[in-house]
Write a structure and sequence with these properties.
Blueprint (H helix, E strand, L loop, with lengths): L1 E7 L7 H10 L3 E6 L8 H9 L5 E4 L2 H4 L3 H13 L3 E4 L16 H37 L16 H15 L4 H8 L3 H16 L1
Parallel strand pairs: 1-2, 1-3, 3-4
Helix pairs in contact: 4-5, 6-8
Pfam families: Resolvase (PF00239)
GO molecular function: DNA binding; DNA strand exchange activity
InterPro entries: Recombinase_CS (IPR006118), Resolv_N (IPR006119), Resolvase-like_N_sf (IPR036162), SSR_resolvase (IPR050639)
Length: 205
């Protein structure tokens, strides 16, 4: 059986391109998820792996969809090969383990060389993005533009924000559910839970 696996890191990213390529390839089953690639502890990936057997094929769009950690990519790749599950990376045709079955040792050599290079590139890109984000935040702080997640609704807020905060507190004290407060005020549930935690901390200190 041919399994297709599509992944993006966040909910606002689109999977359509990957899904289209996997469908066009002829995958029998396609699994998709929006989950960080930092490790392989992903619910959908783990479910797919539990169904894979000897002789199956795993197809992915590119190596970064597989994972983001160099060592974990290598370990997972080797585990698949050990179980005699083939792997196809669509944007890197040389990474198709089925091509080397008749050439003893060559497939492993090619996989080792290319995989080591590409997994290093994937991890370097991840590091580069994190560094750029950190530098961007530092620059924004120096320019006074980074708000650092400043809270709008708190006991020292002014104007409309204070009115909304007081209403949330009143509703919480009246044992209204977070969902009902969300519907009434339009605030996100995370914000309401944050206010609730602040109240509880204040009451216990």
């Amino acid at each position: 059986m041919i399994f297709g696996y599509a992944r993006v890191s966040s909910k606002n990213q689109n999977l359509s391109r990957q899904l289209q390529e996997l469908q066009e390839y002829g995958c029998d089953r396609i699994y998709q998820e929006k989950q960080s690639g930092k490790d392989f502890e992903r619910p959908v990936y783990k479910e797919m792996r539990s169904k894979m057997r000897f002789g199956d094929v795993l197809v992915i769009h590119d190596l970064s969809r597989f994972g983001r950690n160099k060592q974990e990519i290598k370990d997972e790749w080797e585990a698949l090969i050990e179980e005699e599950i083939d792997i196809v990376v669509l944007n890197m045709p040389i990474l198709d383990t089925r091509k080397y079955k008749e050439l003893e040792g060559v497939g492993q050599l090619v996989s080792d060389l290319v995989l080591t290079l590409l997994s290093w590139m994937v991890e370097e890109e991840r590091t580069r993005i994190r560094t750029a984000q950190k530098e961007g935040i530092e620059i924004a702080k120096k320019l006074g533009r980074f708000k650092g997640g400043k809270k709008r609704y708190h006991k020292d807020a002014k104007g409309k924000d204070r009115v909304i905060y007081d209403e949330v507190v009143r509703c919480l004290n009246g044992n209204m559910s977070v969902m009902d407060i969300h519907r009434k005020t339009g605030l996100s549930r995370n914000t309401i839970y944050s206010i609730k935690r602040e109240i509880e901390i204040t009451e216990t200190t």
